[in-house]
Amino acid sequence: MPARAQRPDATEHDPYYLGYISRTPDGDLVQTLRTQIADVERVFRHLPEERAAYTYAAGKWTLREVLGHLIDAERVFSYRAAHFSRGDTAPLPSFDQDAWLPAGDYERRPMTDVLDEWVAVRHATVAFAEALPEAGWTRRGVASERPFSVRSALWIIPGHVAYHLEHIERVYR
Fold first, then answer.
1. Of 59, 63, 80, 113, which sees the most CB atoms within 10 A?
2. Whole-model pTM above 0.70?
3. Sign of CA dihedral 30, 166, 67, 13
């Protein structure tokens, strides 16, 4: 079985990420990344602007900000995967989602623009994962002072999106 179809084991990531990895379906990760585009489009493509600005409680992210967060997180985890896959051993810093989100200023943009950016980022992730040599999937590095494999960084991405889509369905509807 190719490495991209093998679920990461517990030594490849911090236990915190198991919740995301467990939401990623078994099988070819590249195919999962591709097919998830339609899931995200279904939720966000025809969302009216006033709904995109909706938040379910004070201090919580708007739907547009949730999508912006998905962009930021995908870029971070894709970069971690690229960094480790190329054999770079320099540790990578933590990702502070609460610092990144306001700097993205997603609220000033139309929802369709934010969604188009997410789709472009996802296509870049797919292209990277599809081209990744077999040996690259199991290389390892350190991020946020925790061990990561390339495979775990990439498996976190669709699981993280699935988590937020479930959360939207539960509390934003």
1. 80
2. yes
3. negative
